[in-house]
Design brief:
about 325 residues, alpha/beta, Rossmann fold, seven-stranded mixed sheet, 11 helices, 11 strands
């Protein structure tokens, strides 16, 4: 006979992503709909070590659906990387009487969840990262909002750049992944997009793109760079040396993490939160809730951490086709 789930914990860990609050809300309300108490663990895995928690009911997660960030706060925990720290976390779970943990975050969050599961605590992961770089899920919470934020910023930047006939180099997030940069680059009609997955030939990928655009009649140019593909200041200096124009650099930085989540992120987070609790209730745990072709799927954590996601190079080809010799935006 399966053990009845009476009380669960929910936490957010790692980098914040718009939609995390929507996922927390869904976990809490689905839990209460099943007669389960829900405890919010604040500041991620560190909070589980230090017993930093708050009791959550249906009312306490009201009006957070549209809020960015996370009401549970988030942090990265060096203590949790140690055996001593993880054992303290297990002690907190026992003291609070938790029958499972829903962990919302990215790759590092899931590695922490895996370690906790090996110590006997049932866990379910929900993927939330603006980089959209987790192989276990087609989509991660926060990506759409981050893209829209970057697009809005670049559209505004283009207005002033075109007024002064300038080149702009915009750096977006994406330490090891170019999903955000490529998606945004296509959406804003960038002159060039640099991503870490595509080997950069500066003459071909930047200089010739600018020249082609100028020959097509354009007098302003937009270069989008994923942070993992190079520093915007360095790219700017090389452009100035190669073609004699003086680019303006904009690093969007953490502004991409903030803001009210889009409809897609709210809806996806809500579905994932619901299914995470359902998995715990039905005795399916130590897994990640992901999406595949729009459907919700459950993947064992160990398997999920081994999965890789590759940049869709057909999108890169589409972007190139839009650039070459085109005077259109």
């Amino acid at each position: 006979m399966e053990k009845k789930v009476k009380r669960i914990g929910v936490l957010t860990s790692g980098g914040d992503a718009p939609g995390m609050n929507a996922a927390v809300r869904a976990v809490v309300r689905t839990a209460h709909a099943n007669g389960i108490e829900c405890i919010g663990i604040r500041r991620g895995w560190q909070g589980l070590i230090t017993s930093d928690f708050v009791t959550l009911d249906r009312g306490s997660v009201g009006h957070i659906l549209s809020r960015g960030g996370t009401i549970l706060y988030t942090a990265r925990s060096k203590d949790f990387m140690t055996e001593e720290g993880r054992l303290k976390a297990v002690s907190t779970c026992k003291m609070l009487g938790l029958d499972g943990i829903v962990a919302i975050g990215g790759d590092g969050t899931f590695r922490g969840a895996l370690e906790l599961s090996r110590l006997g605590v049932p866990v379910v992961g929900i993927p939330a990262t603006i980089d959209n770089d987790l192989g276990c899920s087609n989509y991660t919470i926060g990506f759409d909002t981050a893209c829209n934020t970057a697009i809005e910023c670049i559209d505004r930047l283009r207005d002033t750049m075109s007024s002064h006939e300038r080149c702009s180099v915009v750096e977006v997030m994406g330490r090891n992944a170019g999903f955000l940069a490529l998606y945004v680059g296509i959406a804003v009609g960038a002159t060039a997009v640099l991503v870490p997955e595509h080997e950069i030939d500066f003459e071909r990928d930047v200089v010739e793109r600018i020249r082609d655009s100028r020959l097509a009649g354009n007098t302003h140019f937009m270069i989008v760079v994923a942070e993992g593909a190079g520093h915007a200041m360095d790219i700017s200096a090389k452009i100035k040396e190669a073609v004699g124009i003086d680019p303006r650099v904009t690093v969007l930085g953490h502004i991409q993490r903030g803001g009210s989540p889009t409809a897609r992120d709210r809806e996806t987070a809500t579905r994932m939160g619901y299914y995470a609790v359902e998995a715990l209730v039905e005795g399916r745990f130590n897994c990640v809730i992901g999406t595949k072709e729009g459907d919700i799927v459950e993947i064992p954590i160990e398997e999920a951490l081994q999965m890789k996601k590759h940049l869709q190079m057909n999108r890169y080809k589409i972007m190139e086709a839009m650039q070459l010799g085109s005077s259109a935006r």
